[in-house]
Amino acid sequence: MKNARPSAAMRREYDFANMKGGVRGKYAKSSRSAVSSKVGKFLYNRFIAGKPKREEEYEEAAVNAEIARKICELRTKAGLTQQELAVRVGTSKSAICRLEDADYGGHSLSILKRVAEALDKRVEIRFVAAKRLKTA
Asked: If phi over 0 gives left and psi between -120 and 50 gives alpha, with beta otherwise, what is residue 77?
């Protein structure tokens, strides 16, 4: 898919499809990328399943949200503020804030490597089978 951002309606559907005891999204504590609740499954099946463009947007949104969640999780485990991480990475606090935003889709490998290095981690890339996210 092109570098197009999912529409606001698509992001709302993604948030609804990832509900479990409340709305999940960038504030989620769970790292599950598949739809897990009955309500989430219903909404996914109702608004996304069987619609290739929406399924593609949903998968892209899920990946972006997972990257953002992971960066935030690693930063907080390291006991760093966004400003402190920004200084270590050599960027601005607003850039770190964008990286931790579930709606941001501009994660480049170079910035991810810089963030990983600042957190004493490394980026690992894997190629896996090209199958869709499980939804049921």
From this structure: alpha
Q: Do 15 and 24 form a contact (C-beta atoms < 8 A)?
A: yes
- Residues with Cβ within 8 Å of residue 18, at least 6 apart in sequence: 24, 25, 28, 32, 35, 40
Residue 127 burial by Cβ neighbours in a 10 Å radius (0-12, 13-18, 19+)? exposed
| This prediction's pTM | 0.67
Q: Residue 20 has what pLDDT?
A: 36
CATH number of 8-118: 1.10.260.40
Q: How far apart are CA 75 and CA 125, in angstroms?
A: 20
Q: Which segments within 18-88 are labelled E, that is strand?
A: none
Domain boundaries, the chain: 8-118
